[in-house]
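All the exercises in this workshop are built on plain-text protein records. Instead of coordinates, the fold is spelled out as a row of discrete tokens. Once this layout is familiar, the rest of the handout is easier to follow. The record below serves as our worked example for the rest of this section.
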Amino acid sequence: MTGVHVTVWDDRGGGGADTPALFVHNIFTWGDDPEYGFAGQRPLAADRRLLLMDRRGYGDSPDTARGDFEVDAGDVVELLDSGAHLVGHGNGGVITLLAAARRPDLVRSLALVQPSAFTAAADRPLVAALLDRVRGLAPTVADDVTPERFLRESTESVGLPVPEPTPRRLRAVATSMRERPTWQAEIPLEAIRGAGVPVLVICGTWEDAPAAYREHVGLPLIEVAESLTDSLGARLVRVPGYYPHTQRPVDVNAALREFWDAAAPGT
């Protein structure tokens, strides 16, 4: 079995659904992080067991020389056990897509929260422009850039507040700085579509986001969400804001409950 850490939440008290939900986080964060992670989804543990995976180099999982979405996808597959609902945010969305393509028979449903699956939407104009920009960047961050500086510049440059640079946060940032970029991912959408995996895509509306963040990140992510909805025959849910599961947890949790109940009734 994989050596990654998994936080388990189960508040059912002996009742509820049998099929667990496995959550896979984005960069700069970890499974139960209240800032960027899935702390806001804790109420869902009243209905079913929740598994919050810390990817390698994040949270309580072991260090890694370089994070890799293919390796993470393998970890997810091992955690699927006899079957689970998958939820992925950002880069975690790319990882859950790859895991679902490898073992669609074990994926009861797939929920994608603003997935960074840019290569799967490369025909969309804003995504194509973003890919042109990022593919011209250096493959690694310069050695003299510290995690604290990287965190500060990454957030301030798009008008976001800088999270407190705790050791746990800075470790997550350091891993993110070395992570294999998701624009190198080749995502076999046909394997997911052909297996009939139910898919939900959740995306913010971004109208209240800082202007730079909306332009450089939000609008391409909206195009990715719309493209995956079309490609996978998914349901698209739009919620106000730009970080759906932390800013609007009640709305996101309601969408997930409804989706899980419809995708696998009674499980």
User: Anything to note?
Assistant: Residues 118 and 224 are 6 Å apart (CA to CA). The longest helix spans residues 211-232.
